[in-house]
Amino acid sequence: MGQSIDLRTWKRRQHYELFRRYAQPFFSVCVDVDVTPLWRRSHTSGGPPFFLTSLFLMLRAANATEAFRLRLRKRGVWLHNHVSVGSAVLRLDHTFTFRGFESSGRLEQFVARGAKAIAESQARKRLEPYADPDDIVYHSSLPWLRFTSFTNAIGGTDSIPPLCLENAPRKAGVL
Length: 175
Fold this sequence. Notes:
Chloramphenicol Acetyltransferase
């Protein structure tokens, strides 16, 4: 669900018309976000899993930000009412697959559904790319890898924003 943007009156029309002709019209921004309190909470007895909690919070922020819900389409620009997230999921054999996660208003519900989805994905042997929806944001979590920039494979005329999380808290002398 969503709506087509009226390009005649859209405040970003000039930007859209300029950048839509570019071969690589994306901008990348890499920022440090201190997730130490979330990391500590997730490692307490009964604490929510770090991956799913950070995914929940990232998805909530993406849905609160209109720009993350905009998509380029053949006839112009579409604004989704809300987006889900598509993430890489590590399988037990150290390969990965992809899985979609629907947003939820409650962390507990998101974690329960997410844990079930991860278990199902880990049991699959096939790599299952997304069925080409554009009502998602892409997400990857790179555990214990310190990075300041990230690129990924982009197919066709993709306008879906990728969000990547370095999965470690900041500590002096670590990483």
